[in-house]
Specification:
Radius of gyration: 28 Å
Distance between the termini: 89 Å
Order of helices and strands: HHHHHHHHHHHHHHHHHH
Structural class: mainly alpha
CATH topology of one domain: Leucine-rich Repeat Variant
Shape: elongated
CATH superfamily of one domain: Leucine-rich Repeat Variant
Number of strands: 0
Strand content: under 5%
Largest sheet: none
Number of helices: 18
CATH class of one domain: Mainly Alpha
Length: 293
């Protein structure tokens, strides 16, 4: 009897709760009031409002909250609301994409792109790619980060295709990503930049980052180009305005990573180099290639 009473009570409570929730959803102003509480200064009220809003129609709620994120001046409030939107996961994808626009403020697009990065869906690549051409570099960085998170073939190809059009400060992030993910589709672009680069104190680290990435990727085309840099120990002068110990060392290390046996002859000449770092790198690469220094 008691058990039956408890089950009846539970069913009644669920019915009452469902009716109350339906009434709240049916009131056009309720969602607006809850969104106001969500962005208010009282954290307890904000959390309670968030829990209730999560039970409403996602499309209607997300549009309201996203517009507050777009228009609110307080960064702390925007951050709180972004966290709320993030709870919806893939459910929020279409609403976020609908808000993403070249004419929207850069900071709004950056927030939207950060949300999309957490979803990481291949189907979003074309929409995100368009923002690699944004006027504001911070928006471009957010687009890069989203595509880097997705990291499928489509995302990698989009990044490689836009590489030439990025400022150097962003290209360095691209290069590190290409190396880390062994993106073979990026090798032609990396080689073009390496071969056309005149090394100076300002560009040396950029050249080194490209060579490091080519070593990580491990593509044979990269090995052939790097071998040329080391040809008879003076090949750097063919491509660069001056020799660079940093570039020589990076090239030796990369050839060892790639495992290109044809590089052994070029590397061996550096095993007794006056610079101990270069000599050590050459000896280690020779061992990696299964050769005796």
């Amino acid at each position: 009897m008691t058990r039956q009473h408890d089950e009846t009570s539970d069913a009644s409570r669920r019915t009452i709760f469902g009716q109350a929730l339906a009434k709240l959803r049916g009131d056009a102003g309720t969602a607006d009031r809850l969104v106001s509480l969500l962005q208010g200064s009282n954290e307890r009220d904000s959390e309670a409002a968030g829990k209730l809003l999560a039970m409403f129609d996602a499309e209607a709620v997300l549009v309201k909250v996203l517009h507050v994120i777009r228009d609110h001046e307080d960064m702390r409030i925007r951050k709180r609301l972004l966290s709320f939107v993030g709870r919806f996961g893939e459910t929020a994808r279409d609403q976020i994409l609908a808000e993403l626009s070249p004419v929207s403020p850069w900071y709004y697009n950056r927030n939207l792109l950060n949300l999309l990065a957490d979803i990481a869906d291949d189907s979003m690549v074309p929409r995100i790619t368009a923002h690699l051409e944004a006027k504001d570099e911070r928006e471009r960085r957010a687009a890069f980060a989203a595509l880097a998170r997705i990291s499928g073939d489509g995302a990698q190809e989009a990044l490689a295709e836009s590489f030439d059009r990025q400022p150097e400060s962003i290209r360095k992030s691209f290069i590190q990503h290409f190396g880390k993910t062994r993106a073979r589709s990026a090798v032609p672009k990396l080689l073009d930049h390496l071969k056309s680069l005149a090394i100076t104190d300002q560009t040396e680290s950029y050249a080194v980052s490209i060579i490091h990435a080519l070593g990580q990727i491990g593509d044979a085309a990269g090995a052939a180009a790097i071998r040329e840099l080391l040809h008879k120990g003076s090949g750097l002068r063919r491509f660069f305005a001056k020799p660079s110990d940093a570039v020589i060392e990076a090239s030796i290390v990369a050839l060892g990573q790639i495992g290109d046996a044809a590089a052994a002859g070029s590397i061996k000449g550096f095993t007794r180099h006056a610079n101990p770092q270069i000599a050590r790198a050459a000896q280690e690469s020779m061992r990696a290639l299964g050769r005796t220094a």
